[in-house]
């Protein structure tokens, strides 16, 4: 009987000891991430002259960021101005005042090093030695952009960049001008019915830019791409709403929220819709409806790369989906924001609105824009206005 009891005792005590050791290792790893590592990072950067608001256990500085954002967003801007940095990023604005133009802050246990000195920004953007890795998309961001051109690095980025360059080189862009003009004309014609009334120009520009991207990059109309755009915008909204929420990865997997479930659904539906566009293009090729292979737009370039026999040039289905998501979302969102803010500044400074209108009529008259006359390059005042719109506002004027 004693011979039997010894193995039983071992079977009971060994798993308990193993589980205890495993839990201890998890605790050590957790404390290293949320306590020891922040202390070390703060110490190292402080020795180099970079300060910042103190790290708070688990949440970092997210509570302070949220409090300041809520303070500014809960009330309208007092004056319409190009100096909106204190309004849209009040926490960063106050940190620059308190700690200097370069400072350290924390989103949860993740360090965020803010750089605003121009020369340092240039060095980082040049990144010749690859010392500054790209932002690694995680969570909702990964679902939105995947491993597309914005987030890819190394050889994969080089391959994807070549595909984009091939689709959007100068001659290809010239061929896209008529489609761009048609989309703008549709929007302007619609606006004529609203003379003397208010319209939400951000929504109008979003539809117009989405239409341009759909027609020029993917050979489809806005109606066909509308569903994809709407789902990408919803996914982008989830990112904004959850950016400052700190959740432990293990708990997130065990207890997904409604937003997690919704983001999973959106990711699946976006993928399904994009694959539908790809299959439609392949079917057109099989029926001989397209000249020159799979088409000259970006979708055609991607599908052609997918069917490459050379493994070094070939891309996967996931690569195609991620690239389409990147161009659909990033392409129209940036342009929409630029156009909207340009209109706001012109509404504030009406004298420049008059100068821009005068320049257009002097150069173009009643004629239509074409891709051959370099009309856009001659618009000096308009280029000045766009550059001013893009200009980063100073912290203190």
Helical coverage, percent range: 55-70%
Radius of gyration: 27 Å
Main pleated sheet: 2 strands, antiparallel
Backbone structural class: mainly alpha
Apparent shape: globular
Ranges where pLDDT stays below 50 over 5 or more residues in a row are 1-14, 393-397
Series of H and E elements = HHHHEEHHHHHHHHHHHHH
Number of helical regions? 17
Task: Record the SSE blueprint.
Layout: H1 2-47, H2 62-73, H3 85-88, H4 90-99, E1 102-107, E2 110-115, H5 118-126, H6 139-145, H7 154-167, H8 170-191, H9 201-217, H10 222-242, H11 249-254, H12 258-286, H13 298-306, H14 317-348, H15 350-364, H16 375-378, H17 380-390
Antiparallel strand pairs: 1-2
Helix pairs in contact: 6-10, 7-13, 8-9, 9-10, 9-14, 10-12, 12-14, 13-14, 14-15, 14-17, 15-17
Descriptive overview:
By secondary structure, the protein is mostly helical. 68% of the residues lie in helices and 3% in strands. The chain contains 17 helices and two strands. Helix 6 runs antiparallel to helix 10 and helix 8 runs antiparallel to helix 9 (201-217). The model is unreliable at 1-14 and 393-397 (pLDDT under 50).
Key terms:
397 residues, mainly alpha, two-stranded antiparallel ribbon, 17 helices, 2 strands, globular, disordered C terminus
In a few lines, what is going on in this structure?
This protein is mainly alpha-helical and 397 residues long.
């Amino acid at each position: 009987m004693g011979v039997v009891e010894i193995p039983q005792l071992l079977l009971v005590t060994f798993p308990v000891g193993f589980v205890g050791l495993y839990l201890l290792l998890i605790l050590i790893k957790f404390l290293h991430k949320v306590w020891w590592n922040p202390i070390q990072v703060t110490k190292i950067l402080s020795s180099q002259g970079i300060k910042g608001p103190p790290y708070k256990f688990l949440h970092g500085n997210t509570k302070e960021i949220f409090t300041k954002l809520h303070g500014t967003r809960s009330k309208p801007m007092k004056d319409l101005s190009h100096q909106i940095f204190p309004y849209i990023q009040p926490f960063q604005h106050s940190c620059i005042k308190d700690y200097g133009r370069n400072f350290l802050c924390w989103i949860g246990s993740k360090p965020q090093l803010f750089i605003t000195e121009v020369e340092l920004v240039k060095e980082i953007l040049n990144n010749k030695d690859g010392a500054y890795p790209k932002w690694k998309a995680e969570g909702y961001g990964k679902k939105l952009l995947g491993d597309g051109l914005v987030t890819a690095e190394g050889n994969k980025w080089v391959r994807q960049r070549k595909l984009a360059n091939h689709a959007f080189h100068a001659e290809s862009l010239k061929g896209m001008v008529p489609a761009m003009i048609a989309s703008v004309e549709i929007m302007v014609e619609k606006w004529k019915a609203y003379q003397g009334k208010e319209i939400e120009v951000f929504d109008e520009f979003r539809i117009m830019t989405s239409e341009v991207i759909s027609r020029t990059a993917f050979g489809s109309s806005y109606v066909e791409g509308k569903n994809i755009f709407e789902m990408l915008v919803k996914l982008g909204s989830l990112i904004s709403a959850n950016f400052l929420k700190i959740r432990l990865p293990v708990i997130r997997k065990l207890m997904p929220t409604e937003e997690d479930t919704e983001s999973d659904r959106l990711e699946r539906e976006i993928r399904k819709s994009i694959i539908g566009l790809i299959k439609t293009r392949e079917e057109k090729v099989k029926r001989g409806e397209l000249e020159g292979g799979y088409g000259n737009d970006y979708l055609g370039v991607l599908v052609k790369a997918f069917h490459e026999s050379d493994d070094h040039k070939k891309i996967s289905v996931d690569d195609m989906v991620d690239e389409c998501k990147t161009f659909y979302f990033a392409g129209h969102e940036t342009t929409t924001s630029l156009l909207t803010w340009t209109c706001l500044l012109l509404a504030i400074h009406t004298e420049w609105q008059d100068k821009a209108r005068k320049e257009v009529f002097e150069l173009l008259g009643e004629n239509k824009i074409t891709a051959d006359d370099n009309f856009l390059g001659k618009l000096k005042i308009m280029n000045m206005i766009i550059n001013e719109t893009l200009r980063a506002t100073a912290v203190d004027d």
